[in-house]
Amino acid sequence: MNQTVVSFLAQYEFFDFLTKIFGENSLLLTTLIFLIFSVAFVAVAATIGGLGTYAERKISADIQMRMGPNRVGPYGLLQFLADGVKMMMKEDIMPRTADKFLFYLAPLLCLLGVFATLAVLPVSSGFTLTDLNVGVFYLIAISSLVGLGVFLGGYASNSKWSMLGGMRGASQIISYEIPVTLSVLAITLLSGSMSFGKITDLQAGFITNWFVFHNPFAFLAFIVYFVGAMAETNRAPFDLPEAESELVSGYHTEYTGMRFGFFALAEYIEVFVVSAVAAALFLGGYNLPFHISIDFLPIQFVQLSILVGKALMLYYVVIWARWTFPRLRVDHLMSVCWKYLTPIAIFNLVGCAVWMVAFNGQSLAQLIFGH
Amino acid sequence: MTTTQIDGLMPIVIMMAAAVVLFFGGHFASVILSPKKPTPQKDTAYECGEEAVGSAWSAFNVRFYVVGLIFIIFDVESVLMFPVATVFSEMVKEGHGLFILTEFLIFIGILVTGIIYCWKKGDLDWVRSYQVSARRNQPAVAVKAKEVKKASA
Q: What domain count does chain A have?
């Protein structure tokens, strides 16, 4: 049985009123509630993705002691809307030699992969669209679609820059999936569950209950996950697929207008998604630092803002890293993944397993402070 | 409670549908708003202003293929480890900790053997051919340098 937003709302009195109108077990009502929440999710995610581009420019400006965008709206906040309108008004150019169908399809695949992950994102104990019992597994699986989109985009353009970028993107994304998966596996091992809801609930309480502080290996796993996730979303210093100084702009060299916009949107939302997943798996998710009854509806919004706040902090770290570290070389990139991160991730996994058996599943804080 | 297994999967379909709607909506807006003025030069692949030569669909570095193969092996292994990891803490609580740990370590041992094998074979070195040729060339270069020294002396 999966916990969904519908089954959460069903415990309130106003739901009885709705079931009177639509009838018991109405598929229409379920679909309607899901639709409303999905639209809200998409709107928020698109805004976060759009504001991500603004934050990127503003933070980079801050780091480089410039002003950054400050013309459109207060503090330039509406810059992303202006950019969006501009992209729509640009001419869509497709190279004559391109594979037309795949060229159309590639941005859609990126969007699909990212939006499908939003369905299991644990934003709060009730508002999570669906809390699948294989949530973590599903998220890792479905986000691979983004890699497919990147590769197809590079391949279908039939341009040398795009081809190089797409090839690099494919090899990078699949390579870094290994350490990420192994780190997530460590959390599954500690929590004994693949559902985001259960994993988050286990971290309820004070900071010491967070999985990142569960044991030293879990802390390492968090770092490995974060570095791997940064590489998986093609963020600098791992942005080799779109390295502008060597590959023009990599896999989306030939993409113009709105199609490029979709790639950018997918990338920025994906960064938010991996940050939110890191927050949920390692940093306590939506939990408040003290116990509170979750039946009170406004608490859901508090939980929501806690998770989004944690995710945005990690988002800031990602942007900060981009404007601080120089880009890696392609062979260094591969050796970082296969010769450092993967062995470290395996070490973490074994460490977590041994820790579980040796200390009977107790965390470090429980060992030190008792109970 | 109206939740069934199907209900739990419905949001995924809806979110994917949302992505499709957003995609085609954006395309539609762009078709209406954007100009259409194709020229023969504009429709070629970008090659820094030069005329595009040949197709990009050519033979590619085989290392990408090797990376793909290694990835598949590791990915399948980690997929198979997910069920074990899920029941791990339960087994520990029931007192079968050492048993499941041994099983887990055997499984990871296979994975570690795999990565050591790939490492020794040099499949994890991205620029393998370059390194091999450099190693071969080194003595030759040294000999040449000595010869040059002798000749100058």
A: 1
